[in-house]
Specification:
It is a single chain. With about 210 residues, this protein is mostly helical. The protein folds into two domains: about 120 residues, RNA polymerase sigma factor, region 2, helix turn helix motif (Rna Polymerase Sigma Factor, Chain: A); about 90 residues, Arc Repressor Mutant, subunit A, CATH 1.10.10.10. The chain is built from eleven helices and no strands.
């Protein structure tokens, strides 16, 4: 039985439709890869500026869509645009606000998913800390797959790697994550024991 990712419209069909004027097709591409774009921007810049970079990346992609050579490689092309935009932000941070891509109000009205806030409360403090301790490529794959619920197929397309590589990163990433969570939990247990011991000592002195 085919899963949802297998039944959906291929990227290249949506790209061609968007090029000839179907904004709903581009809207579908935005919904499909928005989480990945935000995650990539966060991995380079942190959470505060990721939303702006993601919005800029999609607007740049929309304007440059007619120039894409291989519509089937849209996700990898979008990955490159996002990364370049984020790196440019780092180089020109002081001038970023002045050089921001102009927002087309008509486009934003029809591509509503560009303006939706990206919120994910499932990443607890412990998980966030643990993810920061493991290699970035594994952390990114874990966030996209488990927190953003992206299929392996979409992650692979966005990162420009085989699906088997994504599956390996998710599998290995879970092992790394489990190890780091155990370390964090053990440190918390030790800290609580020390705190309790210190409290007992103070009571005995009194």
């Amino acid at each position: 039985m085919a899963n949802e990712a297998d039944r959906e419209t291929p990227d290249e069909i949506l790209v061609v439709s968007a090029i000839i004027g179907d904004l709903n097709a581009f809207d579908e591409l935005v919904l499909r890869y928005r989480a990945a774009v935000v995650r990539l921007a966060q991995s380079i810049l942190g959470r505060d500026d990721a939303e702006d970079i993601a919005q800029d990346a999609f607007l740049l992609a929309f304007k440059a869509l007619p120039s894409i050579d291989m519509p089937s490689k849209f996700a990898a092309w979008l990955h490159a645009i996002t990364r370049n935009r984020a790196m440019r932000f780092l180089r020109e941070e002081k001038n970023h606000r002045q050089n921001r891509v102009g927002l087309d109000e008509v486009l934003l009205e029809q591509v509503g998913s560009l303006t939706m806030p990206f919120e994910n409360e499932r990443e607890t403090d412990e998980v966030k800390l643990a993810l920061e301790k493991i290699p970035s490529e594994y952390a990114l794959a874990l966030r996209m797959h488990f927190l953003d619920e992206m299929p392996h197929k979409h992650i692979a397309a966005f990162l420009g790697v085989p699906v088997s590589t994504v599956k390996w990163r998710v599998h290995k990433g879970k092992e790394y994550l489990r190890e780091q969570l155990e370390i964090i939990n053990n440190k918390e247990v030790i800290w609580k024991k020390k705190k309790k011991s210190a409290g007992s000592s103070e009571s005995s002195v009194k």
